[in-house]
Structures are given as C-alpha cells and as structure tokens.
Specification:
7-stranded mixed sheet, alpha/beta, 34% helix, globular
Length: 247
Amino acid sequence: MFGPEGPSLRELAVQALSSVEHGYDLLAPKFDRTPFRTSGRVLDAVARALAPLGPFDDGLDLCCGTGAGVRVLAGLCRRSVVGVDFSAGMLDVARREIRPGDGPAIGWVRGDARALPFTAAFDLVAGFGAFGHFLPRELPGLFAQVHSVLRPGGRFAFPLPAPAPATDPLFWTLLGFDAVMRVRNVLWRPPFVMYYRTFRLGTVLAESRRAGFTTELRALPEFGRRADGSPRVRLVVATKATAGQGS
C-alpha cells in the first residue's frame, strides 16, 4: 500500500480525517493500488455464481467505486450496466478505465445509494463490499431503495464473508479497526463511516425480508468452508416478487 504507486501513509491519514465522499475523491487516483479494492478472486466467484441466474437485461453496480463490479455486470447483462457512486473522483477513474465495447451500454451516475435516482429499471443490482459505509439505522432505507429500482423478479446480489472466529488474527484486526473508527468519529468531524463488523448475516436477512425480498444464500466454493462446515463466503441473492406473488 505504501509503495511508489500506492497512497502514502500521509495521504491515507488525510483521507481518514475527511468525510467519506471527500476521502474517496482524494484516494481515487490510487484506489486500485490498495487492498481496499475488491479482489479479482471475489469478482470472478460472484460472476460464476450469478451466471446461471441470467442473462439479465439491465444491471446496476451499487457504490461502484472505480468500476471493478461494472466489468462483472457487463459480462452478465445484455442491454445496459450503470455504476452509481457518490464520489466524483472514483467515477472519474471509472470512466477513464472502463470504456464501452461490443457488450452492453455502460453509464455512470453520481448519486447516493440511500436515495437512488432511478425508477424500477434494473433486473440485477449488485454490491461489492461498500456496506460498511452504512450505519445500522440506514440499512432499512438502503434495502428499500434497492427494492424500488428493481423490476419484478429482479435480484439484489452481494458476497458476504462469514465473521472471523476469535482465534483468527483477522477478528482482532477488524475489531481494532472498528474501535479506532468509533473513537475517531467521536472526536473528529465530519465523520468517516466505515465499519467492518456491522453488516452481519442476521441483519441482512431481516432487512431483506422487511424490504419485501425473498432471500437465498449460495456458497461460493472458491473460498472453502470453516471448521464447522459453514461457507467462508456466501452470495446473498434477494429477489423481488413478481406480479401476483406475495413478498
């Protein structure tokens, strides 16, 4: 991360003391050289899991960042793919890096996932790791917004890792990160909302149901299983009811 092409420690510190939007505007030119970018392994696994459910006509990458997820959706959608993000800097990078080709039309929209500027225009909405930027009290509105922009029968899909056990150093790393962010947000304004341990499976299932989705969980076998046999990473697929169906 601190190599010649990645952000310096000072740049990361400035970002962390900014708002979420301005912080990502600052980080955008070097974002794809950080570990914050969704890995190719995750992107490929999600693409393989979603392929049997398609093809889809129109897709939306929620909180698209520099557009890595848009590339995935472009391989699954026949007509159009839109990336939406509230960071103008991230969208600028995405526009430069991802150009329309022979596949679906690609568009970019600056907007807030909590107030999506669309009607029911999509068959697939995907998210790739930005959910830590939403406070728990914002999740009902987020799921309701996604539900509103999907056509009947449309799907909201995103990978969800299982929480690390307390014996795993990752557990303590993420716990420490969240603790530091909470202290930072008490002492400094504007807040920078990014918490790794608030978007849990139980919460996801409850909010999906509240928004009117029916939800299934698909194991991503590329990531193996935990000691108890449960998947290390699941793909959550929440489906909007078709006409005549109950929720």
